[in-house]
Write a structure and sequence with these properties.
Chains A, B: Keywords: DNA-binding, Transcription, Transcription regulation. Chains A, B: It comes from Antiquaquibacter soli. Chains A, B: GO terms for molecular function: DNA binding. With about 350 residues, chain A is of the alpha/beta class. Chain A has three domains: about 55 residues, lambda repressor-like DNA-binding domains (434 Repressor (Amino-terminal Domain), Orthogonal Bundle), CATH 1.10.260.40; about 130 residues, Response regulator (Rossmann fold, 3-Layer(aba) Sandwich); about 130 residues, 3-Layer(aba) Sandwich (Rossmann fold), CATH 3.40.50. Chain A contains 13 helices and twelve strands. The radius of gyration of chain A is 26 Å and the shape is elongated. Chain A binds a DNA duplex (16 and 16 nucleotides) through helix 2 and helix 4.
Chain lengths: ~350, ~350
DNA sequence: ATGAAAGCGCTAACAC
DNA sequence: GTGTTAGCGCTTTCAT
């Protein structure tokens, strides 16, 4: 279909148009909307609102931002918005922001720290009220230093920085209890009779995953089980990464494995795909457990045992801090809980 | 951890700071960055760039937008960003926009047309370069009229409007071949020996789904099979909606059903969940097919038969139009293709 | 090629 | 309570 009314491009109606139409000064018009500060006479206010409605006026938010010197935007940095964990996080954050009068702007970092750095500069230029870094951090000291410096500047100019699940940056943090959840999971699995584990650990550079591996190991240790280092397999922190890692595993390694724990659900599902590809049945031959309890799991059979992380609570906590919280508040850690499903039945 | 360097909030460095530091006028500094228009002496340019780097200057994008009178933002309206279809779309659009020098801003409409209306006004205030409406349209004539008027204003002020898979709005459209794909699917299933169908049609108000139902019906008709109206079940256009609809189905209805076709994969998966809950095995007792080929399917067993839609191509097409295309270009329709998987085996 | 000055749309002192 | 006047940070004529 053709565009209607194309051709004559018209200048958008501005506040001064409205003011003129209502027969008041621009400042009065402005005050009629923002309400706050000096109150404006009810009759005039109505005239202004009416004129605005008639002209279909809508305020230019960019201009408002420039004039006010601050925005109402939260920049949310995620690795990959097509990933179920991050898209749920974005959804929760948006819903929460909405009711706090804030907008969230999602930015994808593609799991590359250079890109992250680039993106943070951009965000600094947008003068977001806050920047939330979700997803794991990296162990690259040099780049992390630069990133930190960049984030410091955000704070210096009045912005807020909140990190989610990443221990590499010294800013306000909101976290899931990764170590605790993993520990409980390890203990639960040991209780179910599991002894021979293989851990898909993600990238050693990613901080949050370390906590999960360490916690899991601690949970096993609680049950008197030791997890050797060679049972901890690094891989890319993604479905594909886990799948590839499992495909590369030697037959002997898998033969000695009764349960695969992947540090997140996406990876666990990638592992399941690869295991099935190699002829293993889940859970008859090999059991699998993950972490996060992503929405995808509702469609997966057998149900994947995992550790549930309260994403909505996290979003509420993060947005709450940004909206009302005091800037340097100490970090908070949200409780996680083990969810046992059919992918890890009791043995014998 | 405490915030570092908190306390002394400092004014962000501006272009005039850079200009002063470089000993040039603000206009020269500006030109040193934007490069275009009048060229600036190479030596001076270097001085400016150096000063900027030293001061850690980053341009205020809001101010740029106000001064230039246009932004570089594409507003993408989706029903629900946690939905696999929309999050994939967002990811594809962002990737595509990136390489075209544009940003995409995702906005969630929650499948409510009033909210959609509200959101479009907001976007109009942000002076986005384009607004892309993904997700199905509604048959509410009154609100659609208002929405259309709002979108007309976007165009009048130089913005671009592109709709994806919704026939209710007379703007530039980019679509998947919904009818064609569904028709092929119907024909393929008939060829596999299926005769007794049940269609989960989503909401009758949603336009795109109608095409899928109609196409499916046409495909069956090609094979001499008639699909009665009472075999087409409306439901909310979501996983939960389909699940609930299937749960409410009478035993007799299901007894007369050999295959359930849902107009998208999310719904198909919701149906699978409900069917299993009622004791049906998939596909031994009832087969299921969906539409979209969302990423989630890689983890679903048995594999779900569906119609693949080329999301990356769609994103490229949409962004291409916005970046280089002529405004009133005719709509385009992208080919879809049937993907037969284990959820619909050949009968006997 | 560079600088001075006007203006983008809006808010916020500051006077009246 | 209302209008006048400066800005906000940047781009872009218009002179030079």
């Amino acid at each position: 279909m053709p565009q209607p009314s194309s051709g004559d491009r018209v200048r958008p109606v501005t506040l001064s148009d409205v003011a003129r139409a209502a027969g008041v000064s621009q400042s009065t018009a402005s005050r009629a909307f923002n309400g706050s500060a000096r109150r404006v006479d009810e009759a005039l206010k109505q005239r202004v609102l009416e004129a605005a409605a008639r002209l279909n006026y809508v305020p230019n938010t960019q201009a408002q931002a420039v004039a006010r010197g601050r925005t109402t935007t939260i920049a949310l940095l995620v690795s990959d918005i097509a990933d179920a964990y991050f898209s749920s996080m974005a959804a929760a954050m948006m819903a929460e922001a909405e009711s706090a009068g804030l907008r969230v702007s999602v930015i994808v970092t593609e799991r590359r720290i250079e890109r992250e750095l680039e993106v943070v500069r951009e965000v600094r230029g947008q003068h977001a009220r806050a920047i939330v870094l979700a997803g794991s951090g990296y162990r690259d000291a040099a780049l992390t230093g630069t990133l930190r410096a960049e984030l410091d500047m955000v704070i210096e100019s009045g912005g807020r920085v909140v990190t989610v699940s990443r221990g590499d940056l010294p800013f306000e943090s909101v976290d899931f209890d990764n170590a605790g959840g993993a520990r409980q999971l390890g203990a639960s699995l040991a209780r179910l009779g599991y002894r021979d584990f293989l851990v898909l650990a993600g990238e050693p550079e990613l901080v949050a995953t370390q906590d999960r591996v360490a916690g899991f190991r601690a949970g096993l240790a609680d049950a008197g089980i030791e997890l050797d280092d060679d049972r901890v397999i690094p891989s890319a922190f993604s479905w594909e990464g886990a799948r590839d890692a499992v495909q590369r595993l030697g037959d002997d390694v898998l033969a000695g494995t009764r349960l695969v724990f992947a540090v997140n659900d996406e990876m666990a599902l990638g592992a399941v795909a690869a295991l099935r590809g190699r002829g293993f049945r889940i859970p008859e031959d090999i059991s699998v457990a993950g972490f996060d309890d992503i929405r995808t799991l509702r469609d997966v059979v057998p149900g994947l045992t995992t550790v549930h992380v309260p994403i909505a609570d996290l979003a509420a906590e993060v947005v709450g801090r940004i909206a009302h919280g005091v800037p340097g508040a100490p970090g908070s850690i949200l409780p996680t809980s083990v969810v046992l499903r059919d992918s890890t039945p009791r043995l014998n």
